[in-house]
Amino acid sequence: DGFAKVFKITANGETIEQLSSALEFETSDYWEGSAVKMTDSTLVLAHAGQSYDGYIRTFKVASDGSTITVIKSLEHDGSYGQYNSLVRADENTYVLSFNGYSNYGRVTTFTIPPDGSSITELVNAAFADNGSSTWNSLVQVDHNTYLNAGYSYNTSGSSGGYYGVLETFTIPTDGSTITSVANLKYTTANSGKNNKLLKLNANEYILAYQGEDGDGYIEMYTVSSDGATITKKWQNEFDTDNTWN
Fold this sequence. Notes:
Number of helices: 0
Strand content: over 45%
Shape: globular
Helix content: under 10%
Radius of gyration: 18 Å
């Protein structure tokens, strides 16, 4: 089941105090959540729920942290909603990458006001190769460009297969359209799981993932502001004995 709690952590990190009791917000199954802060008292969470369906929910947290409650819930994908990565585009627009309907990697935009009182799905688009995409990690490049890393079924090149794939998208701040711009296979076949992207600055990005033989790799990429070019700068194998999550 899915649970939420509120904790207080001092600025120096020396103490951690649980403030609220556990809120059971999903009474069946809970998988692969990704949460984003909306205001000081509201947050939004995307996750897989019952039967692996895709859900997005908003929560309110009391000012003293004593309670956390669900405000609104939307089942946005009745087939799949796994491996979520949620990003805030502006005050009331959110972008979600996940493995969804028909086992395709998908990107969806939502309008959610700061108080979390409503959730409206705007546009839903498949990744460029119409294949699955798991272990997604999404970051915002600039005001209308996004970069996703995922373990995807990618058909580019001479043969298809499962690879780590970086893909860029153009999405305006109102979330009204989603356009795939470029994609790059960054691993050999059957590697590229457990991805995590980190934005360093306007055009440099760090990617950590599980690569060949389950080993841990970290790489740097440059991405143009329009998402048209994705270029690897360097790679380092930091763990030779399996890396997870």
